[in-house]
Amino acid sequence: MSTTSIDDRGMAGLAALLADRTRAAFCLALLDGRAWTAGELARAAGVAPSTASEHLSRLVRGGLLTEERQGRHRYVRLAGPSVAQLIEDLAGHAPAPPAPPRTLRAASATTALAYARTCYDHLAGRLGVLVHDALLDRGVLDRTGGLALTPAGVAWLGELGVPVEPLRTGRRPLVRDCLDWTERRPHLAGALGAALCQRFLDLGWTVRGTGRAVRLTLAGRPALAAALGVDPAALAPPATPDTGPARA
With 50 as the cut, is the pLDDT of residue 2 above it? Predict the structure, then answer.
């Protein structure tokens, strides 16, 4: 066997890191791209701080997380875009939840995440998939020979105020599909996906909501629709699903 072939033990070890629900919950929370403290992650996952610390140490040793310390605080984040891609891809292949949320608050949060959220540093959810598809329809992106930015796309990005050359010279792929775990279809990742997500925020077309959720603003909906060449109604967020009659 070649020394460059995949090590089955290494692959099994990586799978074992994510085979625990607490560690999986930590990685999903960190998909928002921020650095979190152990205490914040413990509260998010519903575990004791000592338990969180042990799991985080394993994830750091396994190369999935990086850590930095500021005074007494220990912050962790995903080790990079490739790790975020791995987590999102695994989530996209996971079975759907067995039952919908039972409370209005939980249903609202689930609906908001499904509509639009950050996947590390790019836009995901139904809005992210819609942007991905619209860029293909508009000719900004092309799939002939693999996903690529077109010359027309370079001009379109210039009108939007996104310079392309700095994105081309970075270490990340310029454009890449990322399987969306709620839509089960690709949204746009790579350096361009991150740049567009940030540009929409800078323009005020989108704003950050709770956690990873992203909201399209009232002014942003017609502006983004015009930029993408779609009907503004196609960008409307869905209504919160009915959770059934209230329980006493």
Answer: no
Q: Using one digit for the tens of pLDDT, what is the confidence trace for 205-230?
A: 999 988 788 999 999 999 999 999 99
CA 221 to chain centre: 20
Tens of pLDDT, residues 71-126: 777 889 888 888 887 887 787 776 655 555 566 565 677 788 889 999 888 999 99
Contact 42, 48 (CB under 8 A): yes
3-state SS assignment for residue 83: helix
Displacement of CA 165 from its chain's centroid (Å) = 24
> What DSSP element (H or E) covers 47?
none
pTM, rounded to two decimals: 0.70
